[in-house]
Each structure stands twice: as structure tokens, then as C-alpha cells.
Specification:
Blueprint: E1 11-13, E2 16-18, E3 21-22, E4 30-33, E5 35-42, E6 45-52, E7 64-67, E8 75-85, E9 97-103, E10 110-115, H1 125-128, E11 132-137, H2 142-148, E12 154-155, E13 165-172, E14 175-180, E15 188-190, E16 202-207, E17 211-222
Antiparallel strand pairs: 1-2, 3-17, 4-7, 5-6, 6-17, 7-16, 8-13, 8-17, 9-10, 9-16, 10-11, 11-12, 13-14, 14-15
């Protein structure tokens, strides 16, 4: 039995109910992959602060905090996130923050769903349409998916910088759904996860360029 497995129980946090394995976000349980991380107090709660290593200049790379000793294939991932822009964030920074899953042992393959909080309330409709994003590393980054299948792997959701956002990702086979802030219906549905249905691996807390990201209340339920 996995060392993190505990009895399921409801945990009320920020009006969100989390079910599953409550994963302690302490340094002994985490590995930084091309990011910097530290434990902080924010808004009265303990969280992990994550920023991308500036040496990594490409987008949609393996830049996350990996959860140690945890394997995930199908099930539910829940986490509360808060995103800010760093003082030196470039003009195209959007507060990128999300979850990588089915991460391979050497971090060379994974699926990922992330959000762009600055886009959620932008005045340009096209930016709003790109609030939520799926990509698959290494072959299907956002730019390829946008070029080859415009609008299919990104969508709109209401959100903003510097506010707590609850993410729930449900994964089964080649399908993934993202629910934001306990909404009834998903903001994004991916019907063809690019790594296939027989893939399993770790979970990572993902950020990209210009983001000061905070993560707390991680819960995992394997099916």
C-alpha cells in the first residue's frame, strides 16, 4: 500500500471539499525539476512557492515540483493554486500554473493541464479563449496543438491573478477533464491524451515563465 494512502475523509478548505490521499507538501516529499521551491506561509496557510529556473528558456518544458514515491494513472487530482507575476516577468507571461501528470521516471514524458490567470478577464476575447491549456511533453506543446487543432486543447474559464483557484483534474484512459472552483461542468475536456491510456507516472506542480506560483491542499485519488 502506498505510504501516503489514508482513509478518505472530507477536508473543508476555502469552500472546497477535497477527497482522497492528502499529500503533505513538505520538502522531504518533493523534488524540484528545473524550478526553485520553498515552503511559505500565505493567507494563513502553508504552501509551496515555485518559480521556473530562468536557465530554461523554452515554453512547456519539464518545470515542476515532482511528488516523490507516487504513481498515478487514472483518478482525480485536486489542488489549490495561486499565481502572481514576478517583477521581471516578460510581456507574454500569463501566470502559467497547473498540474503535470503521468510523468515518466526521468521526466522526459508527461501530460499537463495549466491555466493562464491573466487571460480569464482580459478585454480581448481571443485571450479569454486561451485561459486553460493542455499539452503533452515532448511532442505536443501548446504551439503545435494551437496550429494543428486550433481551439481544441484550450478554452475559457473565469479566473484572475493573486486569487486562490481550485483545480480538479479527472483522468481515465485517454480522457481528462478540468473543473475549476468546484464547477458542475468542466472547463476543458481532452479526449485523446497523447501519451496513450497505458501510461502512468508521477505528478508535478507545474509553472512556466514569469510565474510566482503557490500550491496547497494537494489530494490524489487513484482509481
Amino acid at each position: 500500500m502506498h505510504k501516503y494512502l489514508i482513509l478518505l475523509f472530507p477536508l473543508f478548505i476555502s469552500s472546497c471539499i477535497l477527497y482522497g490521499q492528502q499529500i503533505p507538501l513538505t520538502k522531504m516529499n518533493l523534488t524540484a525539476v528545473q524550478v526553485f521551491m520553498k515552503t511559505v506561509d500565505i493567507d494563513g496557510r502553508k504552501a509551496i512557492r515555485v518559480t521556473k529556473d530562468p536557465a530554461v528558456t523554452k515554453d512547456d518544458e519539464a518545470t515542476f515540483v515532482r511528488i516523490n514515491d507516487l504513481s498515478f494513472r487514472d483518478g482525480t487530482i485536486e489542488v489549490n493554486v495561486l499565481s502572481r507575476l514576478l517583477p521581471d516577468a516578460p510581456a507574454h507571461a500569463r501566470g502559467f500554473i497547473g498540474v503535470a501528470f503521468r510523468v515518466s521516471e526521468k521526466n522526459e514524458r508527461f501530460e499537463c493541464i495549466y491555466i493562464r490567470p491573466t487571460n480569464g478577464r482580459a478585454e480581448q476575447q481571443l485571450r479569454r479563449n486561451r485561459s486553460v491549456q493542455y499539452f503533452s511533453y515532448p511532442d505536443f506543446k501548446y504551439d503545435r496543438l494551437r496550429k494543428e487543432s486550433a481551439g481544441e486543447y484550450e478554452s475559457y474559464a473565469d479566473m484572475g491573478l493573486n486569487e486562490w483557484i481550485h483545480l480538479r483534474i479527472e483522468v481515465k484512459g485517454t480522457r481528462a477533464k478540468l473543473f475549476i472552483n468546484n464547477q458542475t461542468y468542466p472547463s476543458l475536456i481532452v479526449n485523446d491524451l497523447k501519451l496513450g491510456e497505458n501510461t502512468s507516472g508521477a505528478i508535478g506542480l507545474f509553472v512556466d515563465i514569469g510565474t510566482e506560483g503557490f500550491f496547497t491542499d494537494l489530494a490524489i485519488k487513484n482509481q
